[in-house]
Amino acid sequence: MPERVVFDTNIWISGLLWRGKPYRCLLLARGKVVEAVYCQPMAGELSQKLRTTFEFSENRIEAVMYDLRRTCTQVKISGELHVVADDPDDDKFVECAVVAGAKLIVSGDGHLLKLGQYREIQIVSASQFLERMR
Q: Which domains does the chain have, with CATH numbers?
């Protein structure tokens, strides 16, 4: 059974726009080497950022959301976990990992990387994740 992993929104966006390490992370999820998990608040943030920051068309956003649903397993969160004091908006990634039983969060976000770990969940960069997957 593949390891469950949460990819932060910035990993998804970087993986969609460029062919670097975040892209390689997403390829592992698409290839079912790992089981990527997400929650609705993460999907909402992704679509909102693609729309407002990167000016994706609605058709392109719908294609990304289809890929997300096809590639990943969705879990429901309550929104009641509060652990990222510097940026409470990042709590959804930690709670998603807790609910899903994921052992890794892959992120480029400084607040999450600074947290480093929550319970048994490791928070790592794309480079660290790829190194672990070798």
A: 3-133 (3.40.50.1010)
